[in-house]
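Attaching the record inline, Q. Sequence:
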Amino acid sequence: MPKTAGTSFRGSLEEHFGDRFRHDYQDYPLAHSPQARRQQARDRGEAARATDFAGVDCVHGHFLPLKYLQLAERLPCTFVTWLREPVARLVSHYHYWLRAYDGNSPLVSPLHRRVVEEGWTLQQFCLAPELRDVYSEFLWGFPLDRLDFVGITEFFPEDLRYFSRQILGNKVRAQTLNRRPPGAGPGSEALLGDLDRPRIEAYHARDVALYRRALQRRMERRDAPGESGGGVL
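Structure, as predicted:
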């Protein structure tokens, strides 16, 4: 999921898996319509072969997990994601796109270009149809309960420790990558007060409900016998 500490998580995974790690960022889901990205995930899922992943133990990137659902019928797969409070995620995403924009790059999506070159406001970004319920769109056709691990970005160090222990069976070193640089302006928390939060939460109601569900499951896991913090879905 974009702007949910995925780059920091990737750094820990790269260090752990070494040459058995593979990037998968070529799909650019937000650059396509919902229908197009869903069909792309189906098509690439049908084309995937177990032999394509010889020597690969971890795939990380921005893609619909539906893409690998058929592969999971032929190979043991563990599905993992991170979620962040949806409005804070939108604020972070907006300012990251402003900072990272390179108009000469062929990798810039049409949506990213529009946001910057048309001078979208933060409120406009948060209420854009193309960015509505990003979590739910990424998880289309893939129920939350099918995920083996859902980390909560607000509890990143704690949840990373749990992931390391329960999923990897080993300790991984926490890394802090792709953070907002010093002097880049106010952080997400400071900017939330400038937004019509009730309107934005209502617009992203599916993602708000999904995030709250993940938080509740995290709390239940932490309260389970034998767990002392760090629990996640």
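The longest strand covers residues 21-24. The chain has one domain: 6-223.

More tomorrow.
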